[in-house]
Amino acid sequence: MKVIVLAGITPSTFFAHVSLATALRDAGHQVMVTAAADDVVPAIAAAGLPAVPVMQPNLTREQIRAEHGLAEVPADAVEREHWAGRLFAVIETLPMDSLVEFGESWRPDVVIGGMLAYGAPLLAARLGVPYVRQAWDIHDPKLFDAGATAQLQKELADLGLAALPEPDLLVEVMPPSLREPGSKHGQMMRWIAGNSQCRLEPWMYTKGADTRVGITVGTGVADYHQYDFVQGIVKNVTTLDVEAAVAVPEEAVPTLRERLDDKNVEVGWIPLDILAPTCDVLVHQSGGSTMMTALSFGVPQVLLPDAGQFRQMDMARRLVEAGAAVMLTHEQATTEAIAEKCQQIISDPRYAAAAAGLAREIAALPLPSEVVRRIEWLVHAHN
To answer: Where's the Erythromycin biosynthesis protein CIII-like C-terminal domain (predicted)?
Structure first.
């Protein structure tokens, strides 16, 4: 069986596909992972999977927005989700000609795409093969989908379609207790984190104090030089008599190591599946993969979502309601408030108990190897 995986336009979205793509290869199938952005190629290769560049035209995100009438970002969070669906639809289908050329020459038996990889259903329809949609996190993408459908009317009409095709198989990863009424049911799969790995040092996988707080604020540290923010979080968190482990991109490490010269602070680029199991609390900006990885290891979380991002707020709300997290919006997230929320979780064992319960739910879900059998059956039935 030959499989094309469209894993999204960032390394973080690709990581959600590693376990299933690897399981397909381990079962003897050929897998190709397409990369529509330069920085995704090294992540794919570092995970041990074949990377096929299908690069989009050399346009900046601002140019793409301007050319497609998406320059103005809506203030309303729900409208912004619809707008984001339109933007992802444009970005994900810009390399469509390259995708189709590759697909027609390699001839896959099935196409797998992430939740916002809107090129995947179009490619599968063009090639006449089954389409598998794989969830990246616990968020329902219906608002994204509505925006994408509105944006892709011409592309859909060219295929004789009025709306985005429903997947032949929907792969879900959310713990069952987090499912909301009316959400679609699909094939459940256990979340197994996929990360680019590195040469490990002992502090990365063993904590040096009774309590460890993990801190990651994504690539924003390097992109926007938010060193003061991270330094402030660490300064306040370490007053709690805990160890702080700060995961940041390589380019931010020298500056932060110099600023955070403290025996109770470790700084470096750490694969999240290595760091998370050592943490008693994880502080992060509500990214879906980060959230799912922490959940899979039973780690309670301090979430810092953007109030203008409906997706982040939705996922954060559900974890708070489940008792496995506390939340501070960007506006509320002073470094002092973050430290207070860490102390709240450390002092109250109910947070760890709730997170452990969700981890048990995840561990009980079918392994990726079992989902491979479903995909094999799907292709067999189609043929």
So the answer is: 234-376
**If DSSP states are collapsed to H, E and C, what string results for the chain?**
CEEEEECCCCHHHHHCCHHHHHHHHHCCCEEEEEECCCCHHHHHHHCCCCEEECCCCCCCHHHHHHHCCCCCCCCCHHHHHHHHHHHHHHHHHCCHHHHHHHHHHHCCCEEEEECCCCHHHHHHHHHCCCEEEECCCCCCCHHHHHHHHHHCHHHHHHCCCCCCCCCCEEEECCCHHHCCCCCCCCEECCCCCCCCCCCCCHHHHCCCCCCEEEECCCCHHHHHCCHHHHHHHHHHHHHHCCEEEEECCHHHHHHHHHHCCCCCEEEECCCHHHHHHHCCEEEECCCHHHHHHHHHCCCCEEECCCCCCHHHHHHHHHHHHCCCEEECCCCCCCHHHHHHHHHHHHHCHHHHHHHHHHHHHHHCCCCHHHHHHHHHHHHHHHC
pLDDT single digits (tens) 62-73: 888 888 889 999
- pTM over 0.85? The answer is yes
pLDDT of residue 16: 93
Domains belonging to the chain, first-starting first, are: 2-190+365-382 (3.40.50.2000), 202-363 (3.40.50.2000)
